Amino acid sequence: MIPAVFPSLVALSLLAGIASAARASTPTQPTRAKARVDVQDAARDAIPKPAPKAPTELEGEFKALEKEFRDARRAYQLALKAKYEERQKLGQQLTAEDRAGDPTPQYVPRFREFATRAKGTEWGGRALLNAIDMSVAKVEPAWLDELIEVYANDATIGGRAAEVIGNLSWRAGSEVSEAALRRLIATTTRDTVSAAANFNLGTALMQGVYVPGQGPAADNTPERVAEAAKLLRLVAEKFPDTTYAERAKGALFELENLSIGKVAPDFETVDENGKPWKLSDYRGKVTIIDFWGYW
Amino acid sequence: MLPHEKSLVERLKDKPFALLGINSDGDAETVRKLLSEHGISWRQAIDGSTDGPLATRWNVNGWPTIYILDHKGVIRYRDLRDEEMEDAVMKLLAELEAETKAAR
To answer: Which of A183, A222, A178 has its CA nearest to residue A200?
Structure first.
């Protein structure tokens, strides 16, 4: 799970981080954005009044800000990767000094400020999501309230909100993250948002309780695990057409087969020389299975 | 991670121990290159990408994800790194040794 490994993940998944940042900024649902413009245009025609800043302008401003941030972040990550490789050669870990200079905190107030001006629009929602997602040290409860109140029924922002809130566990603690997901579930009337929120609450409950700065508790309670299974099954059954249904099935497989104390399910694969092997070939040995990538 | 893994593999080469990498970087050629660049000797599964069949089936969403199994194939630890990973392996090897002795 990402939260459990985050502190050192920065080093190993630098480029993955860039890739996911790029994914996060993929333009979404042009048809919906277009429809919203039409409605606003119609409203303006009907009642002449000073036009609010047009969504297209907000879009341009948001994208420029996001690009500026992404470029700054990429430069930082590439420099960090170089340092990481240097340290690796010397058998050393990255130091706090190596990690200094992350531009992220500088951009939090800028996304926050934009989110206030563009409140209620897709771009305002995305800026608010960024501001929350990028607040590493402290997450403002009022920002979460705003996210849920304003965007719970926005299919795009609401769904992403569930992901961002789910990822808060390790920073803000399980209590904050899970309570916010429960509020999102109670507030939304949209299936896609509901699926996303139930899925994220389910996967959060699969893990031990996080206290900020301490990582997850080693032991999870049976009650949390049982609720996790219930929510994941609900997502798989009630929202079969969403991507969350597949992810819920994956999480259920993990919950049912990959918990501590279970016999690891066998698999067959091929090694770097094209030779097939099975996990069960290693029965009788103490075995580490390391899912890794150098990126 | 890597330095610890290398020293563990070297130190335990005569013990009933295996380190298995499930790699998400790309095809076999890409991985072979990586292995030789970084002096990685242990066996790999070529999973192709982060959406590879094993990563998908095992619901892996973060890298590295680490499972530590005892000699019976039972999952005993998850996501331990470096010293903690080494300690866990040593503990499981001691368990195996004690069991083998008891069976004699």
So the answer is: A178
Return the residue of A nearest to B68 by Cα.
A288
ipTM, 2 dp:
0.98
Architecture of domain A139-214+221-290: Alpha Horseshoe (1.25)
Residue B56: give the domain boundaries.
2-67
User: Which residue in chain B is spatially nearest to A94 when comparing CA positions?
Assistant: B1
Q: List pLDDT tens digits, range A223-281.
A: 999 999 999 999 999 999 999 999 999 999 999 999 999 999 999 999 999 999 999 99
Nearest CA in chain B to A15: B25
Across the interface, whether the CB atoms of B74 and A262 are under 8 A apart is answered: yes
Name residues 15-34 of chain B within 8 A of A (Cβ).
15-25, 28, 31-32, 34
Number of domains composing chain B: 1
Is residue B98 included in any domain, yes or no?
A: no
The length of chain B in residues reads 104
pLDDT per residue as tens digits for the range B6-54: 999 999 999 999 999 999 999 999 999 999 999 999 999 999 999 999 9
Per the domain annotation, does B27 fall within a domain? yes
The one-character DSSP state at A259 is S
Answer whether B46 touches A (CB < 8 Å): yes
Both structure tokens of A243? 């991507």
Closest CA to A258 of A211, A284, A225, A223: A225
* Yes or no, beta carbons of B46 and A8 under 8 Å apart: no
DSSP one-letter string for B80-93: --HHHHHHHHHHHH
